[in-house]
């Protein structure tokens, strides 16, 4: 919301940005692995349902705003959402927020980059090629270095298997995923099911490392996420990959890594 506000987005687009992720379930995108949504978009599919069941429509109506006009067509909010590989508030927000939280970037770096963002014909772009190149490198720290870290990928896979089993055994219902992470874990722990107990033990106690094509226990792939920010150059928009050989190389390397996936090897069996 603050990024949209900073770039002059309307009140309606700020509302859309604020409520953009409210339909994410417990464990976020793990639900996509559980239910087989390769585009990782389950939260988008249930978005309207979640909004309708909430107090949001009434709250917006009291403010003189129509929730359907604002929330059911994100394509109109071009600062908030853009197709990859463009910048948008959603993509910038989760990258800076995550990497700052995990200590990979400083608050000063995040603020510096956000100050190089401008709106150009309603789209988020960068006014500095060096800042755009910095974000390319930073974004791949997120979607390759962090998302595809062997422990993270193993955790997602093992948790998805556990949740899938719990759904099959009616230990969990799909409605339970609208609860908090801790609530769902509590339901699993209290189920008394020996298989669930074993799967949770594996999830919490396994040590893993990156394997190879010839030596691995789990192979995982993830959604392709690439970035190529547009930069304002002499009142024209130019992809940073056309301005920076390093940015172009980083994207080529990221694409190759994502397409290959990650091979995970157990350090020890639990």
Automatic annotation (TrEMBL):
<dbReference type="Pfam" id="PF01966">
    <property type="entry name" value="HD"/>
</dbReference>
<protein>
    <recommendedName>
        <fullName>HD domain-containing protein</fullName>
    </recommendedName>
</protein>
<dbReference type="InterPro" id="IPR006674">
    <property type="entry name" value="HD_domain"/>
</dbReference>
<feature type="domain" description="HD">
    <location>
        <begin position="6"/>
        <end position="93"/>
    </location>
</feature>
<dbReference type="InterPro" id="IPR003607">
    <property type="entry name" value="HD/PDEase_dom"/>
</dbReference>
């Amino acid at each position: 919301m603050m990024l949209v506000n900073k770039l002059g987005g309307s009140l309606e687009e700020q509302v859309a940005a604020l409520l953009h992720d409210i339909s994410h379930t417990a464990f976020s995108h793990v639900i996509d692995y559980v239910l087989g949504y390769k585009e990782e978009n389950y939260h988008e599919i249930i978005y309207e349902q979640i909004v309708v069941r909430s107090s949001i429509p009434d709250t917006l109506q009291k403010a003189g705003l129509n929730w359907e006009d604002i929330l059911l067509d994100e394509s109109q909010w071009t600062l908030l959402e853009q197709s990859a590989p463009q910048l948008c508030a959603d993509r910038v927000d989760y990258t800076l927020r995550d990497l700052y939280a995990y200590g990979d970037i400083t608050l000063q770096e995040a603020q510096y980059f956000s100050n190089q963002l401008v709106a150009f014909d309603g789209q988020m772009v960068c006014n500095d090629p060096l800042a755009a190149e910095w974000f390319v490198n930073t974004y791949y720290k997120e979607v390759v270095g962090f998302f595809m870290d062997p422990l993270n990928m193993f955790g997602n896979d093992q948790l998805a298997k556990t949740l899938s089993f719990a759904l099959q055994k009616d230990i969990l219902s799909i409605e339970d995923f609208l609860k908090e992470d801790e609530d769902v874990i509590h339901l699993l722990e209290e189920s008394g099911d020996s298989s669930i107990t074993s799967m949770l033990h594996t999830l919490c106690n396994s040590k893993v490392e990156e394997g190879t094509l010839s030596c691995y226990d789990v192979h995982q792939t993830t959604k392709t996420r690439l970035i190529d920010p547009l930069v304002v150059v002499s009142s024209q928009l130019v992809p940073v990959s056309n301005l920076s050989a390093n940015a172009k190389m980083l994207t080529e390397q990221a694409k190759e890594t994502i397409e290959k996936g990650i091979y995970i090897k157990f350090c020890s069996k639990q």
